[in-house]
Design a protein that fits this description.
The chain is of the alpha+beta class. Helix content is 26%, strand content 27%.
């Protein structure tokens, strides 16, 4: 028995461990530009772009497509950030071309009647978005080369826009499903003196205690550097389960 005990003790000897530490750190050679921005800040850029050219534009909302709306999924890839633009009919004396036209006088309807009309399909809407506005916005769609089903991207909501009391609401029209990355491409430029660029807008996290706002990571990708990296792979590469370390 004593021999067996001694043998067991030898097996239970403490294993040797070691720590991997790089004393001289490698430099991080960054080849992209990136910044953090919350969706409220991003909305200010959207406002500056569309507010300057769309007369009836009154604001926007930047959203994340979580895949819960089948109609939206036909126009916006799941997992992408998209933009909704809001419109309100402005006085005729305001400069620029109208983007929305009121179908009928709704001043005599009560709030419940307005909401009931708003909840129906296109036939029950208070406003029409004109074709020129759709044509202007088309290049900012995700699938701009494909014919748009604008009816699925257009609607109305009751908003307390301009009112302190939430009971005093009015109808505003909206067009949704616009690509935030294409909007940033227009704002920052895809071809500049510094090169040719693409842009990514990725959600990092939802802001706590906020109304669906996000922190975004906006990244400017250098297209030429991306192409150089692709070329560095050369021709067809032999398939392998891992990259072999050569001593």
């Amino acid at each position: 028995m004593s021999e067996l005990a001694n043998s067991t003790q030898e097996v239970k000897k403490e294993k040797e461990t070691f720590d991997i530490v790089v004393k001289k750190k490698f430099p991080f050679d960054a080849n992209i530009k990136s910044c953090f921005m919350n969706t409220i800040e991003a909305a200010e850029y959207v406002d500056a772009l569309f507010g300057a050219v769309l007369r009836d534009y009154v604001g926007c909302k930047i959203n994340y497509n979580d895949g819960s709306d089948p109609r939206l999924n036909n126009e916006v890839p799941i997992g992408k950030m998209y933009v909704t633009l809001y419109f309100k009919e402005m006085p005729d004396n305001k400069e620029g071309y109208a983007n929305v036209t009121k179908r009928a006088d709704i001043s005599g309807k009560n709030r419940f009647g307005i909401l009931m009309s708003m909840s129906s399909q296109s036939a029950g809407r208070m406003y029409d978005i004109n074709e020129e506005t759709y044509e202007t916005l088309n290049k900012f769609r995700f699938f701009s080369a494909r014919k748009a089903n604008w009816n699925n991207l257009t609607g109305e909501i009751a908003s307390n826009f301009g009112f302190v009391n939430s009971y005093n609401q009015e109808i505003v029209a909206f067009v949704t499903g616009l690509d935030l990355e294409k909007i940033f491409s227009e704002i920052y430029g895809t071809r500049t003196d510094e090169g040719v660029f693409q842009y990514q807008a990725l959600p990092v996290q939802i802001v706590a205690n906020a109304s669906g706002e996000y922190v975004l990571q906006i990244t400017q990708l250098d297209v030429n550097k991306l192409n150089d990296l692709r070329k560095s792979l050369g021709g067809p590469v032999e398939r392998s389960e891992f990259h072999q370390y050569i001593r």
